[in-house]
Automatic annotation (TrEMBL):
Keyword Transferase: yes
Family statement: Belongs to the 3-oxoacid CoA-transferase subunit A family.
Xref: Gene3D superfamilies: Glutaconate Coenzyme A-transferase (3.40.1080.10)
Gene Ontology MF terms: CoA-transferase activity
Top-level taxon of the source organism: Bacteria
Keywords, alphabetical: Transferase
Protein name: 3-oxoacid CoA-transferase subunit A
Source organism of this protein record: Solimonas aquatica
Amino acid sequence: MSTKLYASAAQALAGLCRDGMTVAAGGFGLCGVPLDLIVALRDSQARNLTVIGNNVGCDEHGMWLVLANGQIRKVILSYAGDNKILERAFMNQEIEIEFNPQGTLAERLRAGGAGIPAFFTRTGYGTLIAEGKEARQFANPDGSSDWYIMETGLTADVSLVKAWKADAAGNLVYRKTARNFNPMIAAAGRITIAEVEELVPVGEIDPDQVHTPGIFVDRIVVSTRQPKHIERPTTRPRTAGEPV
């Protein structure tokens, strides 16, 4: 019986990386990012990549590593943040950015994973986001109407996700905010690789707790447990006598 488990991130990506492919990667800021798999993607040296995700990492972390290595041609994202390399490459016309409202990006990925080629949304109508997109007017129950724009579903040649727990069948559980874009991205990949913190026997995960069913996951690698970074530590001064 074949196994979905691979010994390392590099082995999990073996045979999948090629120039010009589309990669979707989970994560929101620094949370829920498949760090080992992104390092392996960088080391693959695949070029002219299209990358889908909420953002492209930040200084020396996450997808920033692939961007800094000059491997990305286009990004489809909802947040550019403080990524100076991305800003410079975009201003110099070295990289293409397709901006999306955050909810629209999530729905485009969900639609792609569900086999839905396109959908209509009110978000973005009348703005730069709507340029070049089909617009239609739909009636509301009260007799009024609103304009909507058509957005297409998104799929990826390879999806990289980060989960807290998995079994050998590929059933995934994400922990708290790390759930973010990971479930949609897992479903949208033609090949999906899950980087997990804990591997448990099949049957140990309560079916009601599964966030991504194993049918969507092709390969699994156990994380090396890289440090979990905080993007902007924020604290407040403690008052006298306040417990630590």
